[in-house]
Design goal:
It is a single chain. With about 325 residues, the protein is an alpha/beta fold. It folds into 2 domains: about 190 residues, Alpha-Beta Complex (Quinone Oxidoreductase, Chain A, domain 1); about 130 residues, NAD(P)-binding Rossmann-like Domain (Rossmann fold, 3-Layer(aba) Sandwich), CATH 3.40.50. The protein has 11 helices and 15 strands. The strands form 3 sheets. Strands 3, 4, 5, 6, 7, 14 and 15 form a 7-stranded mixed β-sheet that branches. Strands 10-9-8-11-12-13 form a 6-stranded parallel β-sheet, with helices on both faces. The two termini are about 20 Å apart.
Length: about 325
């Protein structure tokens, strides 16, 4: 099969399309999936530039998100048959084969049927951002109907999904964006207030919106200075969920402590990195629920553009340039 290999850490051009051996079923509960598409995520570019979590197992095939058609099954597989269309989050961290490839092997426990209303590229773009936004808002942030929430980077991959999930929970949503085009996009998704952070102070805008109180929940997808500034936009006893580790060289938590904020750190990779099967099964259940919402027309994942596997370096460069709406994916098989 053809696969994109990362032979060493470095710039985007370390990614090379090569011919490698087809993966084989290793257990009786695994599926062999013919990948039609693979999601492209910021974690992929970080692993490529810094090195994978398993540097002694090189070369690596990146790509945590995949969608395709089941080509073969182990004898104990119960819920899938050859020909089923599936999507999943699995592999791509350096230990197991990732999804920048034509074929992959994945245990049926971590697979769910693809939303029927999505093409393969849309489905492959979805798992990581769906799980991240769901865990951040519903599990870490305990979002309740009627609450007010601030979501940073609402036009981005995680942010645009978070806006929709927050609205589905019955919340009012403010979001930061970087352009009028991104503001219009966020409004279409249901955002009640869009704040162009390049033109106005988002804390002041949020306080005006909440009559000086601050939001119940803030979801930080940006980190750095933005994390510390966001503290001032959350009311006392509120929640602040962040995807990034706070850099204490840029600020401190004194104001957060004064406000009695509950600060939560979200890393959806934890179950995979710690091999916690029960937690991974919970994430698969999230994908099942999201597939239902997608097919009911209540949730969408915006696919910005696709790339062929041969243009993996260009895809990473495009993602790293920033300022993009929605998600990217590799179109491995033309639909």
């Amino acid at each position: 099969m053809k696969a994109v290999l990362m032979t060493e850490a470095g710039p985007a051009d370390v990614l090379k399309l090569e011919e490698v051996a087809d993966p084989q079923l290793q257990t009786e509960t695994q599926l062999l999936v013919r990948l039609h598409a693979a999601g492209i995520n910021p974690i992929d570019t970080k692993l490529r530039s810094r090195g994978t979590f398993y540097p002694d197992q090189m070369p690596a095939i990146l790509g945590c998100d995949g969608a395709g058609v089941v080509e073969a099954i182990g004898e104990e597989v119960e819920n899938f048959a050859v020909g089923d269309e599936v999507y999943f989050f699995d592999g791509g961290l350096g230990e197991a084969t990732g999804n920048y490839a034509e074929l992959t092997v994945v245990d049926e426990k971590f697979v769910t049927h693809k939303p029927t209303s999505f093409g393969f590229a849309e489905a492959a773009a979805a798992p990581l951002v769906l799980i991240t936004a769901w865990e951040s808002l519903y599990d870490r942030g305990r979002l309740q109907p009627g609450q007010q929430v601030l979501i940073h980077a609402g036009a981005g991959g995680v942010g645009h999904v978070a806006i929709q999930l927050a609205k589905l929970q019955g919340a009012e949503v403010a979001t930061t964006v970087g352009s009028p085009e991104h503001a219009a996009f966020a409004k279409e998704l249901g955002a009640d207030l869009t704040i162009n952070y390049k033109e106005e102070d988002f804390v002041e805008a949020v306080l005006n919106w909440t009559h000086g109180e601050g939001v119940d929940l803030a979801f930080d997808t940006v980190g750095k200075d933005t994390f510390f500034q966001t503290v001032y936009a959350v009311h006392n006893y509120g929640d602040l969920v962040t995807l990034l580790e706070p850099d204490l060289s840029l600020g401190n938590l004194k104001e957060a402590r004064k406000r009695n904020l509950r600060i939560s750190l979200e890393l959806m990779l934890t179950p995979a990195l710690q091999n916690r099967e029960d937690d991974r099964l919970d994430q698969t259940k999230i994908l099942q629920q999201c597939a239902r919402l997608i097919d009911e027309g209540k949730l969408n994942v915006h696919l910005n553009r696709t790339f062929p596997l041969a243009e993996a370096a260009a895809a990473h460069e495009f993602l790293e340039a920033g300022g993009m709406q929605g998600k990217l994916a590799f179109a491995i098989v033309e639909e």
